[in-house]
Structure formats: C-alpha cells, structure tokens
Amino acid sequence: MIEVEHVKKSFGPLSVLKDISMRVPKGGVVSLIGPSGSGKSTLLRCLNLLTIPDEGTIRIGTHAMRFDRGHRMPKDKDLAAFRSKVGMVFQTFNLFPHMSVLQNVMEGPVTVLGRGKEETRVLAFHLLDKVGLREKADVYPERLSGGQKQRVAIARALAMKPEVMLFDEATSALDPELVGEVLQVVRQLASEGMTMVLVTHEIAFARDVAETCVFMRDGFVVEEGPARQVIEDPQQAATKAFLSHFH
Ligand code: ADP
Ligand code: MG
User: Is the CB of 36 under 6 A from ligand 1?
Assistant: First the structure.
C-alpha cells in the first residue's frame, strides 16, 4: 500500500533523508522511531507530499510519483489527488478554532472533495461515534481537552476516506492521563485494517500495535524488522543506545 524507494531530501546543505526505502503492506502498521532530528517527520511529510522529495519514488495504493533533481514540480491537481489518499495527524491539533467539532470533521469532504452536506454530516457523526465524541459535535475546540482535540483530528482525517493514515507524535503534546484514549483509537483503527505509519515515543505502543518497527538515525534506516524483535532485542548498536533511554 505504501512504497518508498530511494527517497532523498535536503534542505539547503543539510541532507535530512539520505536514501530511504520502506514498504507497508495493505493493512500493515509500521512504527517509526528514532532520535529527534533523524528525519522521521520529514519522511512522513514526504509520504503525503507536504514536502517534495529531491529524488526517489513514493507510491500510495495505485498513485505513484517519481522525483528527480531538476524535474518539474508535480501539478497542483496531482498533488491534491495524492494527498487526499493520505490522512495525517500531527503533534499539535491544528483544528479550525472558529468551527465546531462537527464542522471541523465536515470541512474537508465538503470543501475539498465537493461532497454533499447531508451525506457528510452522516459520515461525520459516524466518525465522531467511532472516536467517542458524538456528544461534543456542537462544541468548539477551545472547550475540549487535548485528548479530545486529537480524537477530533483523527475523525477529521478519516472523513477524507484516506487509504493510509500517518501519525506524527500524535500523543507527545498530551498530558500523560490523556495519552491512552488517543492510543486506543489508533489501536482500533489498526484492528480494522487501516494501513498506518506511527511516529511515536510510546515504545510499548510501537511494539504492541505495529507489526514492523523501523529505527531511523541521521537520515538513514538503521534497523527494521518485526516490532517486538527490534524493540526487545535490537541488533544495531545505535538502536540499542536509543532504546536504552526508555528503560
Ligand atoms: P524528526 O522528526 O526525526 O525529529 P525532522 O524530520 O523533523 O526530524 O528533522 C530532521 C532535520 O531536518 C532536522 O535537523 C531539522 O532541523 C531539519 N529540517 C526539517 N524540516 C526543515 C525545513 N523545512 N527546513 C530546514 N530544515 C529542516
Ligand atoms: Mg518529528
């Protein structure tokens, strides 16, 4: 479902992704771990083309894009079609503050995809049920806890009917007691067969929810394998050193 082949990305002189390849099968869940600055967010942003790679290929489902230094930027229309396949949830909640919870969830399908308001309202209530927030439909984001905001952000991403979901430290900004309710929603998505990449510092979660764990450092994939094995019995010195901070 997701295929990354030889992706490279620099910002000026700083080479951030040095040669990344990775695959996620349909319904697969990959956890992506590594020290701060190793390129995890940049890789996720490349997966939905918020950041355009310098080189390499990104495929999501049947949509593939090949990048090559010196080639033209993809057309906006192609970028939009590609991005609509990929839902993303960030560390900060990015909800629209002037819209109710329901309006936040309906906004993308109605304005980006041109869907009808009635069908979208039905979908939005279904998704708010799924994240346990139906009763908050008419509330504005400022009245929600961080965990509730993040669950709305997940519902909003799902409203676009993405083929894959990407989570970039979705629980890092939350008070500890609110982390569990968000992880529970992610766990449920995994059990329903959503294809996902999870950047997380919740190491137990990275081990238990994902089949595969990828450890990145300095723009490279250093180690990759069954999540339980990588996290409990890492083979590379760099992986061992990183994981030792969590024990
Ligand atoms: P991680 O998510 O693993 O912490 P990032 O992908 O955010 O790592 O960042 C990797 C490196 O790329 C960092 O050194 C960061 O400062 C740099 N970087 C990320 N985005 C940009 C950008 N838009 N412009 C310049 N440097 C960037
Ligand atoms: Mg990051």
Answer: yes
